[in-house]
């Protein structure tokens, strides 16, 4: 049973709090409370008004945008409505029953910003946000800067209106946030806030990639599927097609629930943010029969998933040094359940971001987690205690006491020993040498005991030395079983390809892709070490800055490289004499390929003579993906590039 309020004054305070949070959410993208906390507050307000109908909730439960949006100077020809929320299988069944057996659709509920666009003779003439449902803000100029799926000019002379959602993929959100910080601004709190801030900014000087998906278009149609098929012919991707496996009509509550569960199961691996599933009548005759309420249609509802943002208390901020000497900040928080898991640690942006946010130990903060993204503290939320002192980062490296290099937002320590644990752990990781059993805790113990002073030292140790190493506060021995696993892992590391050895060196501004590029271009470690900055910079996407880091890093690790070579690690690309059937071909893999990781599929492509790329271009031979609604798939379609099914591609590679 939903808790109500002890008095009218308490109710009015809750209404004011809800309206402030809604105004920030709809009009600025700021976060004053999490979605889960807002929903709980709105439910309490609704329960109170049911008991006390004379109490005024000022539109919190009855108006579009909770009655808080400022609207805008563009009047919508028909209202842009909200959707009623449902959260249980029983509510799903009750909604399906209202359809009277008529078919319905289940599609993703994108966590973005609702928008309406008008076209005349194929040209974009107006774009406006939803606002208060009746009027919205004119953002035509901002849309003309470029939004994938919402073209400025169509390939036809169509005249009409399209409605849908503007959102950011996870990768686009990260890029937009980094671009904003580089331009002197604060990092975005979440992807929806990033869209709200970017699309309203008239004089924005940094790039914010965004995407549009349609859920309505003008014209006479018998069904929504016909309507969205027509939208697709004009170049507008449909929200109902973003997960193809749930497309199509459903007629029973069991079928609808299964589709909702399938979308929920995909939530962790989607590259775009969702916060629910939309259930809507397919046939227009059903929609006309059920009609509209003042703020919501009776023929559609939104099923809300557990939120990907939760509120918790910040208890500490740990300062560490990463593998390249870069400062890393980790928040210690009260345990909180978010996006399907309980979180006790979360990452933070750079020190300047923490200072800008005024984070303080004891504050309530929002923690965001989407897909397999590492949980992140995004912002302080709600009212904070007045006696808290903002946290200040240490002026010196906590490991060696030397002052930080603050020449960039990502502070660095240049003392080599400070980054040794991170460097060795990274080198032993899955995408590098893949040494089974060798995790950070054991590496810390090896470094602290003096057994490991650089990466090459790992290959000089015996099974007994590993087994008798003591780890952690409990001073536990690693033991013979784990030691045997590590020794087998080190032997396995000797069989890893040359590109992984390059990656394992942990040179600044390098990673999996750069390791493959360098191995493909120079073939041997001797040739790579002899290469000039200019020769390395000639590799596509490298450039002079990365090339200089490679040259400097190879020189600094000269002794380590010699000892790794003596230990038997690969120092050249293996030539097995096999044919190269993919020679001259370029493949972009989006998502997973059966039997491969992201690293091994790229290695296999290049072993067969091809090139593995991260972006679709005119040079791309084919895109490998199971999803047709991604930005890469849309670009491939625009360029006429074939799309291969991952299972088919796995057979090709075999």
TrEMBL record:
<dbReference type="InterPro" id="IPR012340">
    <property type="entry name" value="NA-bd_OB-fold"/>
</dbReference>
<feature type="binding site">
    <location>
        <position position="165"/>
    </location>
    <ligand>
        <name>NAD(+)</name>
    </ligand>
</feature>
<keyword id="KW-0227">DNA damage</keyword>
<dbReference type="InterPro" id="IPR001679">
    <property type="entry name" value="DNA_ligase"/>
</dbReference>
<keyword id="KW-0479">Metal-binding</keyword>
<dbReference type="InterPro" id="IPR036420">
    <property type="entry name" value="BRCT_dom_sf"/>
</dbReference>
<dbReference type="Pfam" id="PF00533">
    <property type="entry name" value="BRCT"/>
</dbReference>
<feature type="binding site">
    <location>
        <position position="418"/>
    </location>
    <ligand>
        <name>Zn(2+)</name>
    </ligand>
</feature>
<dbReference type="InterPro" id="IPR004150">
    <property type="entry name" value="NAD_DNA_ligase_OB"/>
</dbReference>
<keyword id="KW-0235">DNA replication</keyword>
<feature type="active site" description="N6-AMP-lysine intermediate">
    <location>
        <position position="109"/>
    </location>
</feature>
<dbReference type="InterPro" id="IPR001357">
    <property type="entry name" value="BRCT_dom"/>
</dbReference>
<feature type="binding site">
    <location>
        <position position="130"/>
    </location>
    <ligand>
        <name>NAD(+)</name>
    </ligand>
</feature>
<dbReference type="GO" id="GO:0006260">
    <property type="term" value="P:DNA replication"/>
</dbReference>
<dbReference type="InterPro" id="IPR013840">
    <property type="entry name" value="DNAligase_N"/>
</dbReference>
<dbReference type="InterPro" id="IPR041663">
    <property type="entry name" value="DisA/LigA_HHH"/>
</dbReference>
<dbReference type="GO" id="GO:0046872">
    <property type="term" value="F:metal ion binding"/>
</dbReference>
<keyword id="KW-0234">DNA repair</keyword>
<feature type="binding site">
    <location>
        <position position="400"/>
    </location>
    <ligand>
        <name>Zn(2+)</name>
    </ligand>
</feature>
<dbReference type="Pfam" id="PF03120">
    <property type="entry name" value="OB_DNA_ligase"/>
</dbReference>
<feature type="binding site">
    <location>
        <position position="280"/>
    </location>
    <ligand>
        <name>NAD(+)</name>
    </ligand>
</feature>
<dbReference type="GO" id="GO:0006281">
    <property type="term" value="P:DNA repair"/>
</dbReference>
<keyword id="KW-0436">Ligase</keyword>
<feature type="binding site">
    <location>
        <position position="413"/>
    </location>
    <ligand>
        <name>Zn(2+)</name>
    </ligand>
</feature>
<comment type="function">
    <text>DNA ligase that catalyzes the formation of phosphodiester linkages between 5'-phosphoryl and 3'-hydroxyl groups in double-stranded DNA using NAD as a coenzyme and as the energy source for the reaction. It is essential for DNA replication and repair of damaged DNA.</text>
</comment>
<dbReference type="Pfam" id="PF12826">
    <property type="entry name" value="HHH_2"/>
</dbReference>
<comment type="similarity">
    <text>Belongs to the NAD-dependent DNA ligase family. LigA subfamily.</text>
</comment>
<feature type="binding site">
    <location>
        <position position="304"/>
    </location>
    <ligand>
        <name>NAD(+)</name>
    </ligand>
</feature>
<feature type="binding site">
    <location>
        <begin position="35"/>
        <end position="39"/>
    </location>
    <ligand>
        <name>NAD(+)</name>
    </ligand>
</feature>
<protein>
    <recommendedName>
        <fullName>DNA ligase</fullName>
        <ecNumber>6.5.1.2</ecNumber>
    </recommendedName>
</protein>
<dbReference type="InterPro" id="IPR013839">
    <property type="entry name" value="DNAligase_adenylation"/>
</dbReference>
<dbReference type="GO" id="GO:0003911">
    <property type="term" value="F:DNA ligase (NAD+) activity"/>
</dbReference>
<feature type="domain" description="BRCT">
    <location>
        <begin position="577"/>
        <end position="654"/>
    </location>
</feature>
<dbReference type="InterPro" id="IPR010994">
    <property type="entry name" value="RuvA_2-like"/>
</dbReference>
<keyword id="KW-0520">NAD</keyword>
<dbReference type="Pfam" id="PF01653">
    <property type="entry name" value="DNA_ligase_aden"/>
</dbReference>
<feature type="binding site">
    <location>
        <position position="397"/>
    </location>
    <ligand>
        <name>Zn(2+)</name>
    </ligand>
</feature>
<keyword id="KW-0460">Magnesium</keyword>
<feature type="binding site">
    <location>
        <position position="107"/>
    </location>
    <ligand>
        <name>NAD(+)</name>
    </ligand>
</feature>
<keyword id="KW-0464">Manganese</keyword>
<keyword id="KW-0862">Zinc</keyword>
<feature type="binding site">
    <location>
        <begin position="82"/>
        <end position="83"/>
    </location>
    <ligand>
        <name>NAD(+)</name>
    </ligand>
</feature>
């Amino acid at each position: 049973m939903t808790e109500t309020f002890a008095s009218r004054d308490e109710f009015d305070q809750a209404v004011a709090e809800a309206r402030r949070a809604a105004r920030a959410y709809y009009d600025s993208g700021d976060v004053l409370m999490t979605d889960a906390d807002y929903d709980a507050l709105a439910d309490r307000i609704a329960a109170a008004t049911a008991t006390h109908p004379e109490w005024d909730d000022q539109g919190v439960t009855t108006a579009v945008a909770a009655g808080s949006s400022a609207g805008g100077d563009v009047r919508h020809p028909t209202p842009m409505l909200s959707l009623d929320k449902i959260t249980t299988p029983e509510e799903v069944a009750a909604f399906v029953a209202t359809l009277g057996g008529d078919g319905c659709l289940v599609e993703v509920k994108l966590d973005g910003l609702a928008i309406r666009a008008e076209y005349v003779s194929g040209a974009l003439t107006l774009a406006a946000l939803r606002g208060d449902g009746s009027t919205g803000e004119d953002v035509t100029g901002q849309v003309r800067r470029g939004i994938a799926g919402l073209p400025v000019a169509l390939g036809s002379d169509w005249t009409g209106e399209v409605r849908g959602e503007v959102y950011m993929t996870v990768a686009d959100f990260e890029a937009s946030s980094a671009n904003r910080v580089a331009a002197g601004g604060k990092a975005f709190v979440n992807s929806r806030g990033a869209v709200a801030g970017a699309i309203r900014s008239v004089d924005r000087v940094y790039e914010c990639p965004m995407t549009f998906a349609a859920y309505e278009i003008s014209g006479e149609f018998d069904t929504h599927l016909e309507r969205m098929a027509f939208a697709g012919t004009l170049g507008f991707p449909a929200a109902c097609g973003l997960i193809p496996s749930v497309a199509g009509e459903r007629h029973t509550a069991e079928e609808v629930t299964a589709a909702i569960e399938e979308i929920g199961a995909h939530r962790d691996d989607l590259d775009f943010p969702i916060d629910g599933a939309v259930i809507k009548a397919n046939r227009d005759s059903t929609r006309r029969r059920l009609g509209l309420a003042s703020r919501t249609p009776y023929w559609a509802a939104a099923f809300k998933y557990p939120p990907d943002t939760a509120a918790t208390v910040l208890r500490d901020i740990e300062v560490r040094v990463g593998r390249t000497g870069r400062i890393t900040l980790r928040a210690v928080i009260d345990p909180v359940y978010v996006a399907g898991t309980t979180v006790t640690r979360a990452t933070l942006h750079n020190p300047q971001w923490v200072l800008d946010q005024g984070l303080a130990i004891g504050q309530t903060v929002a923690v965001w987690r989407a897909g397999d993204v590492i949980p992140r503290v995004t912002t302080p939320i709600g009212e904070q205690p007045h006696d808290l002192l903002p946290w200040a980062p240490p002026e010196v490296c906590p490991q060696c006491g030397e002052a930080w290099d603050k020449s960039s937002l990502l502070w660095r320590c240049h003392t080599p020993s400070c980054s040794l644990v991170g460097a060795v752990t990274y080198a032993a990781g899955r995408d590098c040498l893949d040494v089974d059993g060798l995790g950070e805790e054991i590496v810390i113990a090896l470094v602290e005991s003096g057994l490991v002073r650089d990466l090459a030292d790992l290959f000089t140790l015996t099974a007994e030395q590993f087994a008798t190493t003591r780890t952690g506060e409990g001073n536990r021995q690693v033991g013979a079983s784990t030691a045997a696993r590590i020794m087998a892992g080190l032997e396995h590391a000797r069989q890893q390809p040359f590109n992984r050895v390059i990656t394992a060196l942990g040179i600044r501004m390098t990673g999996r892709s750069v390791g493959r590029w360098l191995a493909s271009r120079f073939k041997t470690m001797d040739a790579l070490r002899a290469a000039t900055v200019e020769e390395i910079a000639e590799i596509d996407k490298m450039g002079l800055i990365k090339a200089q880091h490679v040259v400097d890093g190879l020189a600094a690790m000269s002794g380590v490289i010699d000892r790794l070579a003596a230990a038997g690690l690969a120092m050249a690309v293996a030539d097995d004499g096999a044919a190269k059937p993919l020679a001259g071909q370029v493949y972009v893999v989006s998502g997973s390929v059966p039997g491969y990781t992201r690293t091994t599929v790229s290695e296999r492509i290049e072993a067969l003579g091809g090139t593995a790329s991260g972006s679709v271009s005119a040079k791309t031979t084919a895109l490998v993906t199971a999803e047709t609604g991604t930005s890469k798939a849309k670009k491939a379609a625009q360029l006429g590039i074939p799309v291969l099914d991952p299972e088919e591609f796995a057979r090709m590679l075999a």
